[in-house]
């Protein structure tokens, strides 16, 4: 079933997110300024514990800078917040409970995947047994003895996820974790993230694959031009978009009749590419009955439900990058 739909000109966000949510990440006025350029502008994040949170926005929206501030890699210019109950001003208090993969994995090319993880485990003070556990989780044990430089892009990405899992984290932060994965790998990653959530872990994942996030995330944070544009249950954002109808008749002449019927029923109707697009799916039954009385047989009546991509485009003014 086709899911693309026309976008209304005005986006009306759902009600504000309640502040009483038990949060793994909470910020207030988080900002980062470089010279005269404000990259992150007063962001108030709230990410519930035990959720898979999708973190989205156009290129240059400030996502990576936000992640870096949360991980203590750069200091906020203004504002602050907490990660796992500790201030972002003291990342040493929470980083031991955080696993992260940001901007692609970096490993020694002449060491095997297993040896790379052992180096990281030694540096981080993690037990060596954890290396085999995470290799099993990301399904790389069969290739763990091969040199990293021989890995495909998808395998390198999975090894990066394995490295992020070494501390057995409460919070897992992933930046484009499905980069380079084939469809099978993407499906496996989706199942993996759900398993982490079901085990009580919070997963904060930045991705451009909106269709994938729509299938796996239950919370969404959307920033645009450094500012928070939406946060809350992903279903609330998608559900705020009206479903539409795509309708066809037996002949081209039927289209104007169908459009006229829809307008009499109080909807906006437009004839486009041998179909009539109607802005209200709620009139489907009445449209069918009334069109039949007018002598028109409907050969297609498709409900087009909004997608996360539709909502994203509406919030960001129609730009993906």
Shape: elongated
**Element order: H for helix, E for strand:** EEEEHEEEHHHEHEHEEHEHEEHEH
User: Could you describe the largest sheet, including whether it forms a barrel?
Assistant: 6 strands, mixed
Q: Please, what is the average pLDDT? A: 85
Structural class: alpha/beta
Share of residues in helices: 25-40%
* Topology-level CATH name of the largest domain: Rossmann fold
What is the tally of beta strands? 15
| CATH homologous superfamily (4th level) name of the largest domain | P-loop containing nucleotide triphosphate hydrolases
Q: Calculate the terminal CA-CA distance, rounded to whole Å.
A: 27 Å
- Separate helix tally: 10
CATH class of the largest domain: Alpha Beta
Q: In which order are the strands of the major sheet placed? A: 7-8-9-4-10-11
- Give me the Rg, rounded: 24 Å
Q: What features would you describe in this structure?
A:
The chain contains ten helices and 15 strands. The chain is of the alpha/beta class and 321 residues long. 38% of the residues are buried. The strands form three sheets. A six-stranded mixed beta sheet has the order 7-8-9-4-10-11, sandwiched between helices. The chain folds into two domains: 23-239, P-loop containing nucleotide triphosphate hydrolases (Rossmann fold, 3-Layer(aba) Sandwich); 244-305, Alpha-Beta Plaits, CATH 3.30.70.100.
Describe what is shown at a glance.
It is built from 10 helices and 15 strands. It is an alpha/beta fold. The protein has 2 domains: 217 residues, Rossmann fold (3-Layer(aba) Sandwich), CATH 3.40.50; 62 residues, 2-Layer Sandwich (Alpha-Beta Plaits), CATH 3.30.70.100.
């Amino acid at each position: 079933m086709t899911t693309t739909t026309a976008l209304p000109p005005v986006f009306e966000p759902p009600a504000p997110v309640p502040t009483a949510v038990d949060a793994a990440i909470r910020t207030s006025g988080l900002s980062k300024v470089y010279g005269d350029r404000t990259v992150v502008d007063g962001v108030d994040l709230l990410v519930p514990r035990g959720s898979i949170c999708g973190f989205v926005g156009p290129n240059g929206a400030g996502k990576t800078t936000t992640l870096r501030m949360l991980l203590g890699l750069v200091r906020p210019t203004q504002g602050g917040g907490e990660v796992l109950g500790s201030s972002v001003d003291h990342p040493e208090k929470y980083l031991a409970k955080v696993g992260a993969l940001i901007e692609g994995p970096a490993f020694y090319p002449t060491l095997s995947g297993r040896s790379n993880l052992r180096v990281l485990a030694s540096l981080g003070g993690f037990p060596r047994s954890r290396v085999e556990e995470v290799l099993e989780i990301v399904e790389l044990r069969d290739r763990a003895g091969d040199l990293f430089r021989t890995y495909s892009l998808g395998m390198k990405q999975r090894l990066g996820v394995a490295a992020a899992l070494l501390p057995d984290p409460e919070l897992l932060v992933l930046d484009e974790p499905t980069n380079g994965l084939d469809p099978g790998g993407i499906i496996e990653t989706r199942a993996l993230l759900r398993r982490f959530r079901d085990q009580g872990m919070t997963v904060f994942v930045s991705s451009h694959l909106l269709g994938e996030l729509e299938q796996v995330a239950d919370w969404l944070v959307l920033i645009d031009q450094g500012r928070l544009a939406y946060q809350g249950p992903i279903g609330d954002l998608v559900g705020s978009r009206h479903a539409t109808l795509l309708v066809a008749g037996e002949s081209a002449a039927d289209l104007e009749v169908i459009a006229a019927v829809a307008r009499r029923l109080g909807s906006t109707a437009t004839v486009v590419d041998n179909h009539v697009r109607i802005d209200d799916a709620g009139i489907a039954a009445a449209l069918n009955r009334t069109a039949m009385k007018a002598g028109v047989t409907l050969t297609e009546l498709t409900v087009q439900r909004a997608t996360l991509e539709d909502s994203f485009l509406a919030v960001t003014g129609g730009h993906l990058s």
